[in-house]
Amino acid sequence: MNKTNVKQILKERFGFDSFNPGQEETIQALQSGKNVLSILPTGAGKSLIYQIYSYLINKPIVIVSPLLSLMNDQVERIRYLGSSNVVAINSEHDWKERKSILSNLEHYRYIFISPEMLNQKEINQSLAKLNIGLFVVDEAHCISKWGIDFRPDYLSLKSNLKKLGNPQTLMLTATASKKVQDDIIKKIGIDNCSRIIESVNRPNIFLAVQKTETEMDKQSNLIYLLTKLKGPGIIYFSSKKMANLMSDMINLKTKLKSAPYHADLSNSDRFKIQHQFMDNELDVVCATNAFGMGIDKSDIKFVIHYHLPKDLESYVQEIGRAGRNGQPSIAILMYSDGDEQIALNLLESSFPTERDYENYNKHKFNYLDEQTKRLLDFYYQHGYSESQIKQIFKENHSLKVKDLYKLVDYINYVGCRRKFIQAN
Ligand code: ADP
Ligand code: MG
């Protein structure tokens, strides 16, 4: 299949005139028979890659997806585009529906499946009978303990791929440091894998760090900065209280119009603020990291971090919201001595304590963040003992502490910051 044909499919089947960066390169690598790890930013159109490839090979494609909601969303979007030969195998079906799906698998172009379902013998055996054209691992960073959303059930992908006869594999993710990339490839157990990377370097974002001695200096510095900068911009805080406080101060002392955004606000308030920001009725949002996912505003001129983000990878993702229109923009990381202690305390509080385990076992309820709770649910449901779970969290904790200190290294780095990010 040649280049014009691929363009033609893009136009005729999907209605797009040109590829986004990384899409065509990935399709070409797949066409040459390689396994590919493709790292493209959120919104780059990763799904389109396997959708186009499916028209080139005319064999069924199996897509592993970590969340029911993501899976259903994809299925709906494909149906909307006019393909009805798509199915999702997940815990929502009863055995009768499942039986009927499994006996008709060869009729589907796209088969979405959760990693747990792939583990089930009956399902695995039915899939093994197919002539699978491509095996896609969506959100592939979930396989790495160093990734931001580690999903233990992704670890069985390697043995399941083997049972399926090691079909050609495409791994997709938006976030992967060098370390996570290597880990993904190792854990999935694929050699001769090409990597297509289209995310990290954003040359139009100027990278700066501003150190101050005390918290008071930091506050007045921020206000001073905002008299010089033009919006729209985002300022990230790790504390909701501080986000409220500084937002008030910005409204009082600068010409910029600001509002806070965090989990304590009602859904309707958050919705309102997001829209005011999109419509340029607000210059600044003082936010926690709850703000950002799904925010696609192209003219954001600055992203300031008042507190340290979780790690370098989250930092890169958060500042990546600036300058999507290609215009010069700036990312400023503010730091005063000892800030890492705040981050360490926060990290500490996101791990289960003895009380949390007790509470969890008694009431299946705790005050942990979503991700930790999900992991705890998973481990208990899969028969891990409490001491095994504690060991896993302990390892995870020390990894996260390391990642935090990597960020401190970035702050203290004297060479080119862009190079530091790319090397890590
Ligand atoms: P990702 O998984 O990379 O975050 P998606 O696959 O969900 O992104 O696609 C995001 C949006 O981009 C979708 O609405 C999709 O239709 C659109 N899209 C994909 N490829 C292109 C393209 N070449 N040109 C324009 N829009 C595209
Ligand atoms: Mg996606």
Count all strands and give the number.
13
Query: Which geometry do the CA atoms define?
Result: globular
Class by helix and strand content?
A: alpha/beta
Instruction: Determine the mean pLDDT.
Output: 89
- Number of H- or I-type helical stretches: 18
**Strands in their spatial order, largest beta sheet:** 3-4-2-5-6-1-7
Helix content: 40-55%
Distance between the termini: 37 Å
Report the uncertain regions: none
Strand content: 5-15%
Quick one: biggest sheet? 7 strands, parallel
Radius of gyration: 23 Å
Catalogue the ligands: adenosine-5'-diphosphate, magnesium ion
Features:
single chain, 424 residues, alpha/beta, seven-stranded parallel beta sheet, six-stranded parallel beta sheet, 18 helices, 15% strand, globular, binds adenosine-5'-diphosphate, binds magnesium ion, Helicase_C-like, DNA binding, 3'-5' DNA helicase activity, DNA/RNA_helicase_DEAH_CS
